[in-house]
Amino acid sequence: MLHSENASPAGDEEFLHGPTWTLTRLAGAEELAAVNDLHSRCSQGSLYKRYLGTRTGLAPDEWQHMTNGGTALTWVTYSPESPERLIAVLQLVGSAGGDSADLGLLIEDPWQNRKLGTALVRHARTQGHRMGATAITGTVDRRNPAMLRILKDLGASLSFGGGSVIDAVLALPTIDDRPAPAQSGRHPGSVGMASAGCVPRC
Ligand SMILES: CC(C)(COP(=O)(O)OP(=O)(O)OC[C@H]1O[C@@H](n2cnc3c(N)ncnc32)[C@H](O)[C@@H]1OP(=O)(O)O)[C@@H](O)C(=O)NCCC(=O)NCCS
To answer: How far apart (Å, rounded) are the C-alpha atoms in residues 199 and 53?
Structure first.
């Protein structure tokens, strides 16, 4: 089933972001190369904001951990015109205690500032309960106004994390708070398509 961005989709379904007409779905273990291709197309500035350090990609053991579907969840985003070319990767990595999940998000530069980040963080917020998390945490560079804006608008508590970072904690909605499923939509180019920590830190 394809969901609009405001839906509350099950994890194995695709998620349509109307403003960019992109689709988001759970990542597969075999997609490390495509994810690292995405990294290679991102600017150093974007990679720095994502990892708060110099990184150019993910290692196989990290990717395996991120896609294990238990203690971590990862989604990838693509345009239906180029399904193999990923344009964003979103991760929730569970904490050792299991009650919070660390958020990581990287959007390819040309796709930034089009509300996709807002929609993906909202999506993560609806999915964190699948890992048993009650909150999403993030460590954000204080010179990352877009991410800080997204988290603040969702009601996250922000606190100085030392150095140049802000620590964010975003409480997850309880089951009763979650929105009712929205009307299914259909992407014009998706005829026949099913209706849509570890090291990395936010
Ligand atoms: C940070 C990131 C995820 C944001 O996603 P995005 O799709 O670019 O952001 P959005 O288009 O959803 O915009 C988010 C908000 O930030 C605001 N914003 C964007 N740039 C801004 C700026 N320079 N100053 C102030 N606000 C800004 C937007 O106006 C929007 O607010 P609004 O909805 O009230 O208008 C994305 O840019 C990205 O991947 N950057 C590189 C990696 C990274 O920083 N990851 C986050 C740490 S895990």
So the answer is: 10
15 vs 31: CA distance, rounded Å = 18
Provide residues with CB under 6 Å of ligand 1: 46, 49-50, 104-107, 112-118, 140, 144-147, 149-150, 153, 202
At 62-103, the pLDDT tens digits run 999 999 888 999 999 999 999 999 999 999 999 877 799 999
Ligand 1 atom with the shortest distance to the CA of 138: 48
Q: What's the pTM?
A: 0.87
With residue 152 as reference, give the H or E element that holds it. Answer: helix 145-153
Helix, strand, coil content of the chain in percent (nearest 5)? 30, 25, 45
Contacts of 161 (CB under 8 A, 6+ apart): 139, 167
Look-up of token digits 């929205």: 182
**CATH class in words for 2-177:** alpha beta
| Residue position matching structure tokens 């959007």 | 107
The residue among 66, 61, 59, 57 whose CA lies nearest residue 39 is 57
Question: Which residue's CA is the nearest one to ligand 1's atom 23?
Answer: 145
CA distance 44 to 57: 11
